[in-house]
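hiii, so i know i said id send this last week but things got crazy w the move. better late than never?? heres the sequnce for the chain we talked about at the cafe, plus the structure i predicted for it. fair warning i was half asleep when i ran it
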Amino acid sequence: MSVPAAPAVAVDVAVLTVHAGALHVLLVQARGGPFAGWWALPGGRVREAESLEDAARRELAAQTTLRGIHLEQLFTFGQPERDPHDRVVSVAYIGLVPDPGSELIADTGGKYAAARWRPVSRLPALAYDHAAVVRLAISRVRAKLQYTNLVYTLLPRPFTLTELQSIYESILGRSLDRRNFRRKILSLGLLRSVDRTRRGSHRPAALYVFRSRRPRTVAVL
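okay and structure toks below
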């Protein structure tokens, strides 16, 4: 009796950012394979001598302009029918990055024909089970913003309190009371004023940075 081949292991990365007041996810357009022409999350097979996170970072670095972003493991997706070409178990990651301010261009000689930021509220049909990956990633980030300081991964350095509140509102999908939000966030001791201001259409706004850019559990909301 022949022994079935072991499933291949892959990684997929749901990279999220807030752009123009809306939560966006990075999508790539497959050049070939069973979903040629479809939009999907960046990812690929894990090599024998690398960790899962190293594989995720390698795939992003090889096919997009993203480097050194915050990554954390999300979930393992292993339904037998998820990949019509082969038996593949995928470990999904969340990536969080400040607004890049421009389109990402895929390596035109690689496996993707294009890379684009797309608002999560208006996604096209996605290859494999990537729609489920995006939904879970959004749910996880919404939850973690309320009990961790993870918002630092989505902000420039430095930032205004208005920009900070906008990130929360864009991801949570609801408005927050300005006065209560500022009172609470400043009381947590997470921020440090940089003694500079940013000029805009209104009066100059104070600039802040996070005292520590390391994950921390803290009741923000």
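btw Residues 130-147 form the longest helix (18 residues). thought thatd interest u
miss u guys!!
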